[in-house]
Amino acid sequence: MHTILEYSDSSHRQQVIQLWQTAFGYADAHNAPDLAIDRKLAVADGLFFVALVDGAVAGTVMGGYDGHRGWLYSVAVHPNQRQQGLGAALVRFAEAALTARGCLKINLQIRGGNESVAAFYESLGYVVEPRVSMGKKISQNVPVA
Fold this sequence. Notes:
Helix 1 (9-24) crosses helix 2 (33-43). The chain has one domain (2-131): Gcn5-related N-acetyltransferase (GNAT) (Aminopeptidase, 3-Layer(aba) Sandwich). Strand 4 (69-77), helix 3 and strand 5 (105-107) form a beta-alpha-beta unit. A 5-stranded mixed β-sheet has the order 1-2-3-4-5. Helices cover 35% and strands 23% of the residues. It has helices at 9-24, 33-43, 86-100, 115-123; strands spanning 2-6, 48-53, 56-65, 69-77, 105-107.
């Protein structure tokens, strides 16, 4: 059984960093887990959640909300806990938090070619939209590795 609750830096930080390194294998400095955590906590929007199994972090999800659209980020489930409904529970939890804030639409991005992840989100009602995702790194804000 799992419990989903708001992230607590003192209790969850090292476990979340380990999970994200395992799940995502971040190599770019702008994706460093500790930086992402610090930046999210600075926003203080209450949209960072962890799933605990037997008291240990087994999954995460971060939400974002700009007053119109919501976003899901960093949906991760430990490999030992996959295929048990934990990812779906995390997504639904974040959706509920965004819905409660008045969110009209929720977006997310996945890496191209990741068919199993695309199928997971499609099973939860998400659809591929005809959009082009573009990004720009702001080098002055990215720490030197």
